[in-house]
Each structure stands twice: as C-alpha cells, then as structure tokens.
C-alpha cells in the first residue's frame, strides 16, 4: 500500500540533486582541457537524467538550471564568471536547458508510472491475501478483525455496521472497538439509504469516523463500513479511496456469504425438525390406530340391531359413531402440520 513520503525527504531530494550537480562539476573540471565542451554538456545532461529517474520531476528541473549555471561558470570562457564571451554559447545554454527539462520530464514520468505499477501490484497482492483470509471466516467478528488488521497499516480504525432487519426502523449491529455516536450513526444511515460514500473531512483529527462506505452485495446492501483515521491527514485517506472501496466490496461479499450460510443452516435445522416430527407422528399413529381400530370395531358391534329373543336396548350415544372417531383421530394426527402452516 502506497503511503505519503515524509516532508523531510521532500526537502532532501533537492539537496541531493544539488550534490549530484556539484559532484559532476568536480569530476569534470580536471578534464576541462581534455574533453570537448559538447562532451561535458552530455555529462551534465546525464546527471539531469539520473536525478529525474531517482529523485523525481522537481529536483530534476532544479538540476537542469543548476547544471547550466555551473557549466557557464566553470567551462565557458571566461572561466569563473557568468559572462559569456561568445554569443553562440547562449544557444548551447538554451539547448542544454531544453534537453535537460524534456529528458527530466520523460524520466520522471517513467519513474512515476513504474512506482504506480509497483504500488498497484502490491495492493493487488494485499487484496488477494485479504480475500483469502476473509474466505475462511465464520462470524462477523472474525471478518471485522481481519479488516482491522489490514487497514490498521493505514492508521485506520474499523467499525462494521450490519443492518438489523428483524426490528422496525433502521438499526445497526455494531462490530468494532467502540460504539459510534449519534452523529456518526446519522452519517451511517445516510450512506445506507443512498448507497453512496460519505466523507466528513471537517471532523478529521477528532478520533471519530469520517469515512462511511456502503457494504453493497450483489443482491442487496448489507450495512456500512465506518473508518476512523488516527491522524488528521485526509489527503492520504483520499488517495487510498480505491483501496478502501475494494476492501468494502470484499467485506460485503463475506457478509453475504455468512448470511446465506446461516440461512442454509437454519433450513437444515428445520428439515431435521420436520423429519423428527414426522417420525414421532408415525410412531404415535401406529400406537393410536391399533386401540382405535378395536374401539371402532366394538362400536360397530354395539351399533348392530339387537337379536330377536333379546329385549331391545339402544347402545350409548358415545359408541355408535365410529366414523366420527376416525375423523377425530385424523385431525389429531394432522394438528401439528396445520398449526405450523398457520403460524406467522
């Protein structure tokens, strides 16, 4: 991950460029009588090129101007003076300066592109490692800890807010080292509702979250990633925005995977419960049907007309309805399924 260079290194680059020009002058002054001035000009241009490739554009521009001045002072007659005896040397100065500026621009641009490519390669490798670590998480706390370890190298504190849809209103389950204030939750709700990044640079340095990224999964938004910088360097935070958005995307995919895994686990539990219920009802059905069959047969026997030689007696009303007993038995056995179908 690319970070901002310290300010002392910014100043040291110009000092090093001046030192390179002075060393080039000290190395070529003894050769003033041996080498032609055109060859000495090439040596100064080489110094400008090396400065641009090593130290960047600004020091290279300074090296180009300083090289022209040193070349005029030490190598153009009269020596040790900025006066020019021959006006043709002015053309030499102009061409030397133009070539130095152009080569410094090209070399600095090439060096910057190389550094950017190396930084992108490093970020890609870091994101690959992050995705691998998040792929093995089992809880939201583990995912948040991995994201904190990754973004902690940028001096950022991570708070993961997962939307709680089981209760009315927009509420979040917070996972992090601290609880967000009501102001921070307001920014988080705005991020969740509008699906856009929210930044509050005015609160930088106060130890509060100033960057809120939506955790957008392929199917829906799951929550918000809140980032609280430990310093007030918001420019560095802005330069890391693509990396932060990639981390939020990986974290959203992880949360969605955990959501579907929990849903699948609940489904398996319900299937197991249904199988257990069916097994219990099958056992109860077998245990109840045998005595009920005997009772129904006895009721049928009692419901038959009496024999001619015996006095006529009507059987009790509770045993002459075998069909009603069968219907009640079926209703009893199907009662759990009916109750589950009507429950919310």
TrEMBL record:
Primary location recorded for the protein, binned into one broad class: membrane
Positions of the Signal transduction histidine kinase dimerisation/phosphoacceptor domain: 278-310
DNA-binding found in the keyword field: no
Compartment(s) where it occurs, according to its Swiss-Prot or TrEMBL record: Membrane
Gene3D superfamilies in the record: 1.10.287.130, 3.30.450.40, Backbone structure of the membrane domain of e. Coli histidine kinase receptor kdpd
Occurrences of domain Sensor protein KdpD transmembrane (ranges): 14-120
InterPro entries: GAF-like_dom_sf, HisK_dim/P_dom, HisK_dim/P_sf, Histidine_kinase_KdpD, KdpD_sf, KdpD_TM
Residues passing through the membrane, by range: 37-55, 60-77, 89-110
Uppermost EC category: transferase
Keywords: ATP-binding, Kinase, Membrane, Nucleotide-binding, Phosphoprotein, Transferase, Transmembrane, Transmembrane helix, Two-component regulatory system
Pfam family name, one: HisKA
EC number: 2.7.13.3
Membrane association type: Multi-pass membrane protein
Reaction catalysis annotation: ATP + protein L-histidine = ADP + protein N-phospho-L-histidine
Protein name: histidine kinase
Organism, as annotated: Candidatus Accumulibacter contiguus
């Amino acid at each position: 991950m690319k970070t901002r260079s310290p300010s002392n290194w910014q100043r040291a680059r110009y000092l090093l460029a001046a030192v390179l020009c002075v060393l080039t002058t000290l190395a070529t002054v003894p050769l003033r009588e041996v080498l032609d001035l055109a060859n000495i000009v090439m040596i100064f241009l080489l110094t400008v090129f090396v400065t641009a490739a090593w130290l960047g554009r600004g020091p290279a521009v300074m090296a180009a101007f300083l090289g022209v001045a040193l070349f005029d002072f030490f190598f153009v007659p009269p020596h040790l003076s900025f006066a020019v005896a021959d006006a043709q040397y002015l053309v030499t100065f102009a061409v030397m300066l133009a070539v130095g500026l152009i080569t410094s621009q090209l070399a600095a641009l090439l060096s910057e592109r190389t550094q950017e490519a190396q930084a992108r390669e490093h970020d890609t490798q870091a994101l690959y490692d992050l995705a691998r670590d998040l792929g093995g998480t089992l809880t939201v706390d583990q995912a948040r800890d991995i994201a904190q370890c990754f973004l902690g190298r940028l001096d950022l504190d991570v708070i993961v807010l997962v939307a709680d849809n089981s209760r009315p209103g927009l509420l979040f389950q917070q996972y992090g080292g601290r609880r967000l204030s009501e102001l921070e939750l307001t920014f988080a709700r705005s991020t969740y509702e509008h699906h856009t990044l929210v930044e509050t640079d005015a609160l930088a340095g106060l130890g509060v979250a100033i960057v809120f990224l939506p955790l957008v999964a392929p199917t829906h938004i799951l929550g918000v990633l809140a980032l609280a910088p430990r310093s007030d360097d918001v420019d560095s935070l802005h330069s890391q925005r693509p990396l932060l958005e990639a981390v939020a995307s990986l974290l959203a995919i992880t949360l969605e995977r955990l959501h579907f895994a929990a849903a699948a686990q609940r489904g398996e539990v319900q299937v197991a419960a249904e199988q257990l219920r069916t097994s219990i009802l099958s056992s109860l059905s077998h245990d109840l049907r045998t005595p009920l069959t005997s009772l129904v047969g006895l009721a049928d026997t009692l419901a038959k007309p009496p024999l001619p030689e015996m006095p006529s007696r009507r059987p009790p009303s509770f045993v002459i309805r075998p069909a009603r007993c069968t219907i009640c038995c079926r209703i009893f056995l199907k009662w759990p399924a009916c109750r589950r179908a009507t429950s919310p």
